[in-house]
Amino acid sequence: MFSTSSAVALSEPELKLLQTLIYQECGMYFDERRTHFLNDRLQRRLRACNLSSFYEYYRLLTSREGKHELSALLENLTVNETSFFRNRSQLELFQKTVLEEILRRKQERRDWSLRIWSAGCSTGQEPFTLAMMVADALAYYYLRNPLPFDMPSPKPLIPPPWKVEILASDINYSVLRAGQEGIYLEHHMEAVDYAYRLRYFDKVGPGRYAVKRTVKDLVHFDFHNLKTEFLPQRNDIIFCRNVMIYFDEAEQKRLIKKFWRCLNSEGFLFVGHAESLFGLTDQFRMIHQDNGTAYSKIEA
Ligand SMILES: C[S@@+](CC[C@H](N)C(=O)[O-])C[C@H]1O[C@@H](n2cnc3c(N)ncnc32)[C@H](O)[C@@H]1O
């Protein structure tokens, strides 16, 4: 049982009920190491709802009227830490090897669409990093290879006939709104070097940077709960980094199976630095290069 002076006691059965509900709703699993965090967040929500017991709170969450509160609770439980250019060695593998291979293969087939999904995108730094890197990769590709069509003037960010779509999804509406806004403060910009700031951001105030419209137009933010079965299909690449770490093994296995179905043939999956597909699936092959890791889909 948990209780501190001003806190409402959380009994073991109440904790179990709430743990199970959260797991069923979003896949996040709060084991003993994270129960204190869970208790702290539950106390906050209980106060916000003016309720005096966790059983009452559980009843609210499972009622029709409790849908809003359930979203608010899940938002309070997610860890949204992120940054631009997170895990550079992996991003180098993405840009120099994976993208290069996909662009070459697609051009041969005259398939000009590229679809990338950032699943668990938080406040947008990951999908915007990917958008900037794709734009650079395409420019560099056509520096070395003839462009199959005339380049319009002024030169667009994405050379035609390519169509690049980056879907950025999360379960937390507040982070999705922040991503849609696309404005970042000086401390968010630490990993964004001078050249990237100049090309892809506008300074919109002291220490405030807005992602340029051309980059924003490549990224579409949307709500998706990775726990559900209906997830975005036909992706060439999926990034799901630092999300599965909060799921238990059974949920991780289910999610990897779903990602396999959501990828086009010859697609790639990127997971976080502290995550691995080892022992969880035989549907992906690991690629490891200069400290970066990715997984390529194995056809059935
Ligand atoms: C630590 S952040 C990772 C952000 C980014 N991918 C990165 O690596 O920098 C984890 C994100 O996953 C989201 N998340 C957690 N559970 C989720 C679920 N069931 N469905 C969708 N997103 C989820 C959280 O809201 C949070 O924004």
Oligomer classification: single chain
CATH architecture descriptor name of the largest domain:
3-Layer(aba) Sandwich
What value does the average pLDDT take?
96
How many β strands by DSSP?
A: 10
CATH homology group of the largest domain: Vaccinia Virus protein VP39
How far the N terminus sits from the C terminus, by CA atoms, comes to: 48 Å
- Classify the secondary structure makeup into a structural class: alpha/beta
Give the low-confidence spans: none
CATH class categorisation of the largest domain: Alpha Beta
The arrangement of helices and strands along the chain is HHHHHEHEHEHEEHEEHEEE
* Biggest beta-sheet profile: 7 strands, mixed
The total domain count is: 2
Counting H and I runs of at least 4 residues, what is the number of helices?
A: 10
Per CATH, what is the topology of the largest domain?
Rossmann fold
Strand order of the largest sheet: 6-2-1-7-8-10-9
Detailed description of the structure:
This protein is α/β, with parallel strands linked by helices and 300 residues long. The chain has 2 domains: 66 residues, Chemotaxis Receptor Methyltransferase Cher, domain 1, CATH 1.10.155; 210 residues, Vaccinia Virus protein VP39 (Rossmann fold, 3-Layer(aba) Sandwich), CATH 3.40.50.150. The chain has 10 helices and 10 strands. The strands form 2 sheets. The protein has a 7-stranded mixed beta sheet with strand order 6-2-1-7-8-10-9. Strands 3-5-4 form a 3-stranded antiparallel beta sheet. A hairpin with a 2-residue loop joins β4 and β5. α2 packs antiparallel against α4 and α5 crosses α6. The model has no long low-confidence stretch (mean pLDDT 96). S-adenosylmethionine binds next to loops.
